[in-house]
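Data availability excerpt. The first of two example chains:
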Amino acid sequence: MEKQRIFAKTWVLVLLGFMTGVFVGCSVRQIEFNRFPSKSALARNVRLSFAYDKRYTGSSPDTERVWDELLPVDFGFIKHSTLSPDPSAVAAFHQLHCLNGIRLHLDGKHSKRAASAHEDVSPAHMRHCIDYLRQSIMCAADSNLEPVNEELGGVTGWGSERTCRDFDALVGWTRKHRSA
């Protein structure tokens, strides 16, 4: 009789432990889905093949225009009642802002566009951007394999097929929640 009682208590404890684990797991998952738009509203992926796009590498007015078009109004700053009641920046747009700043700095456009705080190309800001992009790249840790280009003796990344987050969906979500 005592063995049956111990056996029953053990199973009740195992069952309660399992149910608690399921509850906690679902709660944590719900918090995770609510906190990051990339895991809820922006779960769509698209297949892309990387290719060189010279529009983003020159220093012409057209190059400036295409870079400006990458960033939504307000440079990707949003307010969201549950995710971010205080203004916050969507990381992808901060990353693009940094990359564009480095591009401007390399092109020697320090004075032309530095009037805007969003286009600060000072050496201190560029050092921030380099380290921020380093950490962002390491965080994403893209493990796709890129074939060696025999002529170059290295890789370009072009022709490499990827599954990417839907950037247009991110832009749309950001516009919907802009901090204006």
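And the second chain:
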Amino acid sequence: MRILIVDDESGVRQMMADTVRRFDDSYEVEEAEEGEEALRMLDDSFDLVITDIRMPGMDGVELASRIRERFPDIIIFMLTGYAEFEYARAAIRANVSEYLLKPVSVQALREAIAKAADTVRGRKEAERISRLREMALLEKRVQDLLYELPLPYYDEWMFPEYDAVGVLSFVIEDAEEGGTIRFAVKNVLGDVLSGFGVPLVFVEGSHLTCVLFLKDGHASPEEIASRCADAVRATLRRTIRAGIGGVAKQLSEVSGLYWRSLKQLGIDRPAVPVAGDGTEQGTDGLLEPRGEMHHLIRQTIHILETEYDQDITLSGLAERLYLNPNYLSTLFKNETGTTFTQALLRIRMEKAKELLRTTKLKIYEVGSRVGYADSAHFSRVFKNHENMSPYEYREKYAQT
């Protein structure tokens, strides 16, 4: 916590400053002799001002009012004598957090500052959480742009000021540690890119993608990529290969830059099933899209409907589609109204019921054909979903 003590009596001021420093080594305490000097010293890094009410020139009342105008979050303590105590309370109740009666006891000062420190910690934690939420929302909106989702006009305010936006993608050579090394590289890239603008770095399956909001006079994408590679090599002893999407002036061009960067790395854009070509057969009635379905979700549903008998996981599918698993999960839920896990279960159960009705396959064979290697597990899942066992379902609905 950063504290400014303002008092024209140097002995009182210095003694209070020394006392406060002894309360906690982390307190940064500075001193000012009068109000004008205090205002010159103040900036928004200060958390607390302790000022005498009566000083030559600008008194404590005026100082408190001026502080409130410029720095509304700074906590203010007023030092006051007994004769002026009631006046001070009445005159500046709205501006001052604490009134300390002179001479101030060490205990009273300690308790007041401890209370202020709690307030400052709470405020900073709230600000930290708010920044994290804003960053999470910004990351989601940028991913929406990468994957060509429409951006609500009212969200455009959240993007940093920029003159151009650039996209780079990277793959790590010989990344046998899997996700661990990718997240280490992500941290290094974030540090390097912050020197060029406001960066967002995403880990997406086999690669990392960087979106950088740039100001005028920025370095070339090639130079930025080279700096990133040098930093990763020096810090992690790893080699990364860059795909340079380039820069653009408009956010609407980000998706094109993204796919260009992946193409340079030899990563092809996922094929998208086209309505009417037969590849989406069977989706009707199983998953209902909310409006026009995004091409990545149509691709996801196509995979679920054709590979339901395989060991399909969200993370594995996200890697195939070059997506972040959390993003795919959120996008899937928004587009279909159901979760990835629920959708896969629903498809498997529908296929299992079809096999039970129309074939004489044994129960374990039906389970195996819809992705369950363990017959007992299949039977439990089926009963939980259908309120009857596979055997009971066949007895009731089998086509003869």
